[in-house]
Amino acid sequence: MAYNRSLGNLLDCGGQLVGLRNWCLVLEYDGGRYCGWQVQPNAPSIQGEVEGVLSTILRETVSLAVAGRTDTGVHALGQVANFKTGAKFVPARLGWQVNALLPNDIVIREIKSVDDDFDARRSARHRTYSYQILNRAFGSAFWRQHSWFVSKPLNISVAAEAARHLVGSHDFSAFTVAKEGPMIRRVTELKIARGSGSELVFSDETQTEGLISIRVTANAFLHHMVRLIVGTLVDVATGKLTPEQVRQILESKDVCQAGPRAPARGLRLEKVDYSISTSDDASKVEDIGSGVTAEL
Questions:
Q1: CA 230 to chain centre
Q2: Domain at 29, CATH number
Q3: Active-site option among 12, 71, 105, 287
Q4: Is 71 an annotated catalytic residue?
Q5: Residues 81 and 138 in one domain
Q6: pLDDT profile of the chain (296 residues), mean per 10
Q7: Domain region containing 38
Q8: Are both 250 and 161 inside the same structural domain?
Q9: pTM of the complete model
Q10: Helices 91-101 and 46-58, interaxial angle, to 10°?
Q11: How many Å is the maximal CA-CA distance in the chain?
Q12: How far apart are CA 149 and CA 137, in angstroms?
């Protein structure tokens, strides 16, 4: 057994850290004023804010692994991250302390102990994103930072017909700006419905009048994949494209054939699904970061 001063933890003979515990965070945030999840030079990030506060409270450098690295302006209701530490704390109390120091547009919803091999990104089975479109004659002060305002009437029935071509395992090269790496992704659900798809309950229905939610679940997503899918489906809903043309776009593997990239502000990470055992109950199988679970 050796001691590494830079790590401040005991190392076993294989160089593995001993005495660390793995912790999972479920986060909610408004991404409007951030450069995205990932730390960037000279720009505020979600990762930077959360790691900074955790490091201050725990008095050690904290590094977070995350389920989905959301882009600039993208929001989250059920982002999931994890970190390992030897520090001792009461989870609920740490949550209160972290939230007290974080900006009010970032909130820790839950902190829980998980198995040592849990990784927020690698252990994820599915991720669900939703996109909000405000489709009516006039915009909304309430939804302006959380939806894409489209005044032209949208036919969501024909858009739903087009969406069927995108469900299943496909090469999504036509729906990403990524140039390298595997392009095969498995979309298990793609639903379009009127309504906010939100946890929020409104006593006044005018608050959600004209809202359309596009909800996509997949094993993983490519860069800008959801926003390009949404932009293409809006082109179908306005009559610019046909459902058959969406199938052709998918098969073309050419992003230049896809519709416009929808604005980031309408997109949010709803939830991340896992089948794991927590360290507190080895037989327990559950979802973390459940976010919005109601069917649309």
A1: 16
A2: 3.30.70.580
A3: 71
A4: yes
A5: no
A6: 39 56 98 96 96 97 96 97 96 97 97 96 96 94 94 96 98 94 96 71 58 96 98 98 98 97 98 69 40 28
A7: 2-123
A8: yes
A9: 0.84
A10: 120
A11: 69
A12: 9
